[in-house]
Design brief:
single chain; alpha+beta; 2 domains; 6-stranded mixed beta sheet; about 50% helix; transmembrane; Thioredoxin-like_sf
Length: about 290
């Protein structure tokens, strides 16, 4: 019986076997590379999780060292704010001490936010602007760059008072608690050198693109903007960190979810829908 497919020769069989073996080796090598890549990705993911956990623990540990009660700076309010009354003055503090343990945690944070102790000026008086701001917040830096000079002019003209509620919301993303440390520095300047407060505010948020600072750098910046040299000890001693911790906790309890959050005469200004200067000018007109 004849056939059109003669049996492969020994040389052909050997070549075919070699080709199959090469294909198997290539497949095994590819599988090994994929496995190695998956292992590396898994290790990388684990490292990222560990780093995030370490950062979180550092932040929590640093905050845990801060007392729940403490002193209040000049200009301090019962909500943890600093009331600025002119371009170079702050108000008398309304309380001498804050204590987080006296804050009552709600079952659920209110929505919309209902900040405590908002100042609403009486007819004929300068209207009040309350700002929830975080030094490590890019949108707060943008807000200050856009409206800081205008707010200072309103203050100089006697048209407004401004309460800065400097919070540490973004400590969660900083291993050094920069938000709270910088807020403490602001409180130190308000307490010891109120005339330098607004200049320090402008410099501090203007520094945002350059990143976080050490306490010594915060002190240097404050002094360069007119604060007394004694402010360095106040900053380094975390003198008003309990005050910042109190302001942060109170803001969270009151449903203030982010920064900047702006309130004019007790009413929130939605920056996504409202023009801030227009909202202020309308409030001024309504309060005459």
């Amino acid at each position: 019986m004849s056939t059109n497919n003669p049996r492969p020769s020994k040389a052909e069989r050997t070549a075919s076997a070699r080709e199959k073996a090469a294909q198997m080796r290539a497949a095994q090598e590819a599988a090994a590379k994929r496995k190695s890549l998956f292992v590396k990705l898994g290790v990388l993911a684990a490292v990222i999780v560990v780093i995030a956990l370490v950062v979180t623990l550092i932040v929590q540990n640093n905050n845990a060292k801060i007392e729940d009660s403490g002193a209040v700076p000049q200009g301090g309010t019962a909500a943890g704010g600093i009331m600025v009354t002119s371009a170079d003055t702050v108000a008398e503090k309304t309380i001498d001490k804050v204590d987080i343990k006296k804050l009552e945690a709600p079952d659920e944070a209110p929505a919309p936010a209902t900040p405590r102790d908002l100042t609403v000026a009486e007819k004929g008086e300068p209207i009040n602007i309350a700002l929830y701001v975080d030094v490590n917040c890019v949108h707060c830096a943008d807000f200050e760059a856009t409206y800081g000079d205008q707010m200072q002019q309103w203050l100089a003209d006697g048209k407004v008072t401004i309460e800065y509620r400097n919070v540490g919301y973004l400590d969660r993303g900083s291993a050094t608690n920069f938000s709270s440390r910088a807020a403490n520095a602001l409180a130190c300047v308000a307490d010891e050198s109120p005339a330098a407060y607004l200049g320090f505010v402008k410099a501090l948020w203007g520094h945002y693109p350059e990143g976080e600072m050490k306490n010594a750098e915060l002190a240097d910046m404050a002094i360069q903007n007119g604060a007394a040299e004694s402010v360095a000890d106040c900053i380094d001693d975390d003198k008003f960190r309990p005050f910042v911790k109190y302001a942060t906790t109170a803001g969270q309890y009151d449903g203030v979810a982010g920064t900047p959050s702006i309130f004019v005469q007790g009413k929130e200004v939605d920056l996504a829908k409202q023009d801030f200067p227009t909202a202020v000018e309308e409030a001024m007109a309504a309060n005459k």
